[in-house]
Write a structure and sequence with these properties.
alpha/beta; 121 residues; Rossmann fold; five-stranded parallel β-sheet; 5 strands
């Protein structure tokens, strides 16, 4: 059965790059969102077992999205994908419930390592 994957980034190009970085052997059903608000709507519609979440977006950023997911007790495996590689950013997202942090540009090997580490792939 396909894993429901949600790719959240305000940049369509970044979303495409993230989707291309997913392992080819991973059976997925992909949805996309351009900001945190759209991501939460998609999540509530059952479209996100695994979420690749950017931090810097208009309307609702990645931090705010994680806060809502945490506050509402929503169960989703979140991997933050960001160009903001400051140690405090990674620390903050993990406190908010993100399972992993990948810096942009994303590479398939890093995605595979994380998915295997958590038994998703």
């Amino acid at each position: 059965m396909a894993t429901k994957v949600l790719v959240v980034d305000d940049s369509a190009i970044s979303r495409k790059m993230m989707i291309r970085a997913l392992p080819k052997e991973w059976e997925v059903e992909i949805s996309q969102a351009a900001n945190g608000q759209e991501a939460l709507e998609a999540y509530r519609q059952g479209k996100a077992e695994v979420m690749f979440l950017d931090l810097t977006m208009p309307v609702m950023d990645g931090y705010q999205t994680l806060e809502v997911l945490q506050k509402e007790g929503l169960d989703c495996f979140v991997i933050v994908v960001s160009a903001d590689v400051q140690p405090q950013a990674e620390e903050r997202v993990k406190k908010l419930g993100a399972m992993a942090f990948i810096k942009k540009p994303v590479n398939t090997q890093k995605v595979v390592e994380i998915l295997k580490e958590y038994g998703i792939l």
